[in-house]
Write a structure and sequence with these properties.
Order of helices and strands: HEHEHEHHEEEEHEHEHEHEHHEHHHEEEE
Bound molecules: phenylalanine
Strand content: 15-25%
Keywords: Amino-acid transport, Signal, Transport
Protein name: Branched-chain amino acid transport system substrate-binding protein
Mean pLDDT: 93
Strand order of the largest sheet: 9-8-10-11-12-15-16
Distance between the termini: 72 Å
Domain Leucine-binding protein: 32-376
Number of domains: 2
Number of helices: 14
Largest sheet: 7 strands, mixed
Organism: Propionispora vibrioides
Helix content: 40-55%
Family: Belongs to the leucine-binding protein family.
CATH class of the largest domain: Alpha Beta
CATH superfamily of the largest domain: Response regulator
């Protein structure tokens, strides 16, 4: 009796499963194209995830209002990866196997992205990070990963931009590098900064490390102060960078503090205070001050939608959504494999952060900007072409 019940129950579950499976599949007769969003919506870098999703949603809204893609509406299915690599892997698995999305956008940070790539590859669904800059995301041991793409420049370029800025513009001869050793992003940038800075005749006189979620950096900062470098390079994210800059200034470190795109968040000013950030410089993907008509139009539309200025993350989210939409149009299909093939051929696509052409390693070749923090405001310093 009991066995029979179990059997009945099991088949009921299976039938429901099948029906649900059918209902959620993106068959070609469906009126929707489902795209997954695997982002940091809570946890350490929640602001990053939220802004990127805002950028994506704006692009989807504009395209849907103009009639959609190939006659279908774009639907964004969101999953929160809690700013953790293991959760990012769970989120992508759910989006691909349960929601049956045609492609996945995200995550933001390099370590989170890296944790998802094998799953995309195994299921043959493209994963496109708008923002992950670590080179290993698209190339693994010299081999391009067929299902991995990105919408931004890579860290060897970004590290070089800041090393050149330190050596040439700031005339620095010595530097200390202070990294988050729990982050692939931070570790990669340390290497590329060092290579370019020493090539310029500069010297790295110290390397120090912290961990994500650390609160008190004073012991290490005191040590760094004793080394008396011309600049300190801190390639990390706003939460820790904010605290480090604040504590560095409290300890009397007055030299320029340098960073990278991970500094780009309004929370940085909240955490560090405007004054501590003066004499701070970082590389980024665009400046909302840019007078390029595309930038002006985007900034206006974004402000109208969200009542705040778009960060580089919002711009990259928007641009990467446009890159995916362009690929779906050219593919003429929402089949993940066909979208992958079309993504690979992305060429001369005009977007907010520049012109998107993917190289043979699935990386866009794009310019960077250097931003100076002045009294809590981001001020555009220079644009650097690759
Ligand atoms: N580039 C960062 C990473 O790879 C993410 C990031 C991009 C953060 C842009 C802020 C702005 O981890």
């Amino acid at each position: 009796m009991r066995k029979k019940w179990m059997g009945l129950l099991l088949s009921a579950v299976m039938v429901t499963g099948l029906v649900a499976g059918c209902g959620s599949s993106t068959g070609s007769d469906s009126k929707e194209i489902k795209i997954g969003a695997n982002f940091e919506l809570t946890g350490g870098v929640a602001n990053f995830g939220k802004q990127t999703v805002n950028g994506i949603m704006l692009a989807f809204k504009e395209v849907n209002e103009a009639g959609g893609v190939n006659g279908k509406k774009l639907v964004l299915v969101q999953a929160d990866n809690k700013s953790e690599p293991s959760e990012a892997a769970n989120a992508v698995t759910k989006l691909i196997t349960q929601d049956k999305v045609s492609a996945v956008l995200g995550p933001v940070t390099s370590s989170d992205v890296l944790a998802t790539l094998q799953i995309g590859q195994d299921n043959k669904v493209p994963i496109i990070t708008p923002t992950g800059t670590n080179p290993n995301i698209t190339v693994d041991n010299g081999q391009v990963r067929p299902y991995a793409f990105r919408g931004c420049f890579i860290d060897p370029f970004q590290g070089q931009v800041m090393a050149n800025f330190a050596a040439k513009t700031l005339k620095a001869k010595t530097a200390v590098i202070y990294i988050d050793s729990s982050s692939d992003y931070s570790k990669g940038l340390s290497e590329s900064f060092e290579a370019a800075f020493t090539k310029n005749g500069g010297q790295i006189i110290g390397k120090e490390a912290f961990l994500q979620k650390d609160q008190d950096f004073k012991a290490t900062l005191t040590k760094i102060k004793g080394m008396n470098p011309d600049v300190v390079f801190i390639p990390a994210y706003y939460e820790e960078v904010g605290k480090i800059n604040k504590q560095a200034r409290e300890l009397g470190i007055t030299v320029p503090l340098l960073g990278t795109d991970g500094w780009d968040d309004s929370k940085l000013v909240e955490i560090a205070g405007a004054a501590a950030l003066n004499n701070g410089f970082f590389s980024n993907h665009y400046s909302p001050e840019d007078k390029d008509p595309r930038v002006v139009k985007f900034v206006e539309a974004y402000k109208k939608e969200y009542n705040e200025a778009p960060s580089a993350l919002a711009a990259l989210g928007y641009d990467t959504a446009l890159m995916l939409i362009d690929a779906i149009k050219r593919a003429g299909s929402d089949d993940p494999g066909k979208i992958r093939d079309a993504l690979e051929k992305t060429k001369d696509l005009q977007v907010v952060t520049g012109v998107l052409t993917l190289d043979e390693n699935h990386n866009p070749v794009k310019s960077a900007v250097v931003i100076e923090m002045k009294d809590g405001k981001q001020v555009f310093r220079e644009k650097v072409n690759p």
